[in-house]
Amino acid sequence: RSDVIDARLAEEQRREEREQQQKEADRRRRAEERARTEQAKARRLQEQEVRAEYEREQAEIQDARATLRRALVNKMRLRVLLFGFLLDTNGGQYDQT
User: Fold this and answer.
1) Closest listed residue to residue 2, CA positions, set 85, 10, 14
2) What pTM value is reported for the model?
3) How far apart are CA 10 and CA 32, in angstroms?
4) Can you tell me the distance from the alpha carbon of 1 to that of 28, in angstroms, rounded to the nearest whole number?
5) How many other C-beta atoms can be found within 10 angstroms of the C-beta atom of residue 16?
């Protein structure tokens, strides 16, 4: 009879140990899942920051290109005006001679 009681107590203790191990495994699994979730969130935030920086740089490049185009157009206008002025002044000199 005491053997039966000892066996039952031993079985109960093994069951409690298995439950405790299962609880610990569940806690570890949840902690790992939280860590993975946090890492994924951090990666998404970093990707958003990189994307925003890229878009800012692209906007700056577009602005610089527009500025360069305006400068080139202005340079061409100045050349045309200068050439016209030189033609007018030289043409006037030639007319006088």
Assistant:
1) 10
2) 0.56
3) 33
4) 41
5) 10
Instruction: Give the model confidence (pLDDT) of 37-74 as tens digits.
Output: 999 999 999 999 999 999 999 999 999 999 999 999 99
Residue the block writes with tokens 């700056």: 60
Distance set, CA 50 to CA 56, 59, 66, 73, 83 (Å): 10, 14, 24, 34, 49
Measured between alpha carbons, how far is 81 from 96 in angstroms, rounded to an integer? 23
